[in-house]
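As noted in the main text, all predictions were made from sequence alone. Below is one such record, for APC family permease.
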Amino acid sequence: MAFMGPATSVAFNTNPAAAGAGFALPLSIVLALVACLLLANTIAQFARKLPTSGFAYTFNTHGFGHSGGFLSGWLLLLSYGMLAPMLLSAIGTYSSGFLHDQFNINIPWQAMALIFGAIVWGINASGVSESAKTALIFLVIEVGVILGLVGTILGHGGAEGLSFGPFNPANSLHGIGGLGTGMLWGILMFIGFESVATLGEEAKSPKRTIPIALFTAVIVIGIFYVLSAYGAAIGFGQSHAEAFAADTNPWGTLATKFWGASWALVLTVLASQFANFVSGTNAVVRVIFSMGREGILPKILGRTSKRQIPHIALGAYMIFGLVFVFVLGAFLDPLVIYGFCGTILGLGMIIIYILMSLSVIRFYLREHPSEFRIGRHAVLPIITAILMLLPVYGQVSPVPPFPNNLVPYIVIIWMLAGTAYLIYLKRKGKDLIEAMGRVFEDTPETVAPSSATE
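Prediction:
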């Protein structure tokens, strides 16, 4: 839940989502919720059989073979890799702006990004349990404040009274494409729930707890997102739908209108960004660690400390995030960097979601044919893949502004580079290819006899 960054998602994604869906923003979020629930089913079916830190990389290796698994992991690397620079740019500029507005203290956003980056690095170096507890505290704070503002808006009847207008597709500013744009940013709000699957090797009873965590995260935060979207739309009113779509800080406007101040919201967003950064880094680092351990990335990234922390992968990722955001910051506004990195993350993850939905069909047919169920392992995954095509369409129609319009081309170039690297690995040695997708399927039926024999 913390990796989803609820308050960050609501604060930053409402504007670009509303720019497409307008007053029908809540409907787009409902569509995103349905798609992610269907996706949770796909991930759960994999997690029950493959508890691993490799996530989509390992899942699609078992579904599509070594080449398909590698390319999925390669795209996952790009998508998750954007998390650190995205959040560093956001938390840096928000904290810098808060200090200036409230205390007249001027600290460059780059310096604040460096400070928060160092703090998150230290927390994650202490272990997953400690970082999860930290993220949980901030998660409770951020959700509580946003719900308080939504409750105030609905209690006042919004701007023009309560209605079901926000769930009417006819109220989308740009028709089906507008709903697709809203859904794209809605799915971006959910991105992170699947990261629980990356902790499959560290969780207790992962085949039971991972699926429970998946569905709980999607349902609880999904309801929160729908309520927030409805509160925002109602807070502006249907007759002000264009103003809602054009407002670059809609929640600041709502907080000022209904609470008379926005500083509490800014602090909440900062708490959300921090929790998002802490828990998100855990997931990213464990994917990098898994690929390093299997020799796809440099093997040094697959090393752990005496406390079993993937410290080399953590350090490499944090340094990459800081350098990346500072280089882009020399040319772009930090909030533009946030939108740019977020779009890469969102589009890349949607493609991965589609691939995983198709992969689970082949996985059960090939490796667990006796457990294959046409509804759970075929119909639902196909519906998921089809539904995920809507936000892909929303990314190209209408064409987004610079630099977000470059994102599809960046993804294509990245995948071409990954294909070339895959060909290189195949020529270098068969052992590296066979190492892909190695997981620990430690079912009780197989572990006990093995241990007894030894």
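The domain at 6-453 is CATH 1.20.1740.10 (Amino acid/polyamine transporter I). Residues 439-454 have pLDDT under 50 and may be disordered. These features were considered when defining construct boundaries for the mutagenesis experiments described in Section 2.9.
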